[in-house]
Batch of 4 targets.
Target 1
Amino acid sequence: LTKEMEKKRTDIRQIVNKPDNIVPFLNPGRLLYMVDGVVDWGWGILVHAGRRKLEVDPRRKSAMTEEEEDEIQWIVDVFLPCEPGSLQENTPIPPTSSNKAEG
């Protein structure tokens, strides 16, 4: 029963997270909770959301199919807190302490 409930939750999350269902709520100023893989960025402020064709990184091009290369995707610009000093190194990381974040 627990596995079945977890599967239903996963199915509902996949439906809710589809771009067609999220787009009406992507308004500038909205707070978003951002997680990138295993990196938890926390809360950020949505600045802009729009559709555009992604520029393909030559290193990843071989791993992508032709359909993925031509696909137009949703891009969101979000202000996120970063660890002080990580922006100068051009590798922003989430803050380790909440009192001195920059960004």
Target 2
Amino acid sequence: SNHTCDIVYDDRSDRFSETNNPEKNPGAERAKKIYSVLSKRNKGNVNVPHFAEVPVEFLPDILSSIREYSEYHLREGDAPKKDDSDVEAVSIVYEILRRWDKALTVFESLSNCKTR
């Protein structure tokens, strides 16, 4: 998907319609959609189950992605406006780190063993 389409629901016809807007910034639109999902899940503290099978080694990439996606509205060009319903990135990071607190201790111990 190029993430430049808009889907609109028409009450009168009870149908959805799709329009493509090639002037949108695909990267910023994709980031906004991903961050919107993370924000909505964070409000109910339900992001964690979606990361249950993700190895702890991916944690740095996940945290970096959250920061990157949270800045979707700062991108150059026709970046979308910040959604008022978005939560702060630190809230999502905190929620995800709570899941990995014990795993991080084990991972840190294993990392220390390799350097000895």
Target 3
Amino acid sequence: RSRTMLLRCAGAVSGAVDVGDVATVGELVVCLAKRCACDAGELKVIAGGRLLPASETTTLESLGFSATTRLVVSRVRRDPAIEAQAKKEALEQARADRLGRIEKAAETLP
């Protein structure tokens, strides 16, 4: 683990990034998160058209990473206001569905 690797990135992290001697995908995501000053959970990393799992056990070597590997880094941060609105809409839909079932049951009563 003493060798360093320089990876080319595009997206939330752009340019050449010296990832040092990281060995797992989880370490890579943490390294990229430090570069863009965000939480590692907010990043999606794509290499070779595949979304990389943020796993501490998956090694870069097993995925075939080399100095020529190109990464696309995407920041996915959900807005709390949007989440609250979606939750409110889901509750309203559930209520409407429940009222529809009650109406249908009431219509079938003699």
Target 4
Amino acid sequence: RSPKMRRTECVLLLSLLLFAFSLPAFAKKKDEKPKTLHVIGAGWSLTGSDVLAKALNVLGLGPTYHMGELLSGSAKGHVRQWIDHADGRKPMDWPALFENYSSVV
């Protein structure tokens, strides 16, 4: 990657974090089940999405859905949903997939 691309990624990440700081009114109360997604961060693998997910959790905008959830096993049943969707067998039920999350990266 070029240094210019790295700078662009950093600026985008910082912009998103600053935006997240401006959303305290949207942060859920402790032990409250999320009702809607407040932050959707889309990006390529290995661009800091794991750190961003952790930062969103710390800022009170979590729990955050990250593909690492699939690997760790904490999103049980989601692997099958993703495979069925990717293979065209079933449409994805996005509201059900993200019902326990406030953010997605």
